[in-house]
Design a protein that fits this description.
The complex is a heterodimer of chains A (about 220) and B (about 260). Chain A is of the alpha/beta class. Chain A is built from 6 helices and 10 strands, in the order βββαββαβαααβαβββ. Chain A has a domain of about 150 residues: Rossmann fold, CATH 3.40.50.300. The two termini of chain A are about 20 Å apart. Classes of the chains: A alpha/beta (about 220), B mainly alpha (about 260).
Chain lengths: ~220, ~260
Amino acid sequence: MQIRLDNVGLRFGDRSPLFEGVDLVVESGRFIIIEGASGCGKSSLLRLLNRLHEPTTGQVLIDGAVARASDVIDLRRRAVLVPQTPFAGPGTVRDNLLWPLKFRANRQHLHPTDAALRRHLDSLLLQDVGLEDEARTLSVGQRQRLALMRALLLEPEILLCDEPTAALDTVARTVIEARLESRCAAGCGVVVVTHQGLDVSAEGVLRVRLQADGLQQVGT
Amino acid sequence: MNPVAIGPGQLLLCLLFVGVAGAASVALRLHLERDLLWGTVRAFAQLFLVGYVLDIVFALDRPLLVMAVFVFMVFWAAHAVRGRVRDPQIGVFAPTFVSMVVSYLAVTTVVTAVVVQVDPWWTPQYFIPLGGMIAGNSMNAISVCLERLLTGLRERREAIELALSLGATYREATADLLAEAVRAGMIPSINALMTVGLVSLPGMMTGQILAGVAPVSAVKYQIVVMLMLVASTAIGSVVVAAVVRRRCFTSSQQLILH
């Protein structure tokens, strides 16, 4: 799968543009880290890739086709966004993890067993969290990992993560970074937006900085 | 039993009631005299106007004219909903008006044609008062429902966008909210079913009794009306809420409200 931003700009209302002239190719198996100052539009850029926003200028192409003419649900099913604020809905941890599987677009996914969910939680250092626990009682850091796990259960072709390690300690950060890298190695495209950097060593990682006049490459 | 007709003299006599209220206003310095006078004049004028218009409509007995009166009543009901909801981003008048006309027309027609079995179904004497009661009653339900819906869409923006970003359609992302909004609008008319006859006698039943109809006969009509109001409230709220909700999203399932 490929999502291509072609000379894209975004502006809200009468305000001056957040950014302009952004070119970016996101595709399966590629790891991209987008850095930038707070408020420069990193999260909005990620939302463009998931089409929660439309660009003001330029265009988005999904597998070569103009995004506006393509099926948005299909895109969001395949390119899943993990937002910065880790939302936990009412109900248990299990309810929250299985919630997206209720949507028609995700019905082809098999419901994971409790044992599988347990293994997932453990692998993200959530051994203390029970499947029956009330999700809203979890800490921000725990909810952040829960949100990532919820997205991973959908087996996305592209994973769009907004500050996935912002609320985590060093140990948990390392685990998340390793998990993202292994997903990428397994063929998933990964885009991470961060203001504090991300410590990954995967081959071919593209690091870019978002500025008002576009993306500037800062390293590979 | 024929009702006692009220003559012009008796009507003028009623002005004494306003006089009493006016005297109280002067004595207690309530400064309500002008409002009382204006209110009385308006009540006389508006009601007589409606009375004469209905006299004409009843006399002409034309289906198109009956429908025109029906649409006119619904128009003002939709106008009142707009006044109460008043959203800065989403226009609610057009969807409310169209949905109200369609759903109330359906319910009123079922009541006159199937339940009461009036022939023809549009007989003005039945269709207009029943349609008017539906429009007037479910207006409140729809206002409550829309307010709840639009507030909820803004307050839960984050959760709704998360659902969308995980592959939900806008319908899936807002199903709970829509149900809550419709529920909030419907509760008063269900509560009315619980207390009717205990707290007060409904206006329509009282009117029929005063007009000489036997109480049990009036009760039967009242039951038809109350159940009809529950149905029209439910249908009206669901349709209006669904149409307005649609307007809050783009065709690419993006939430417009902010």
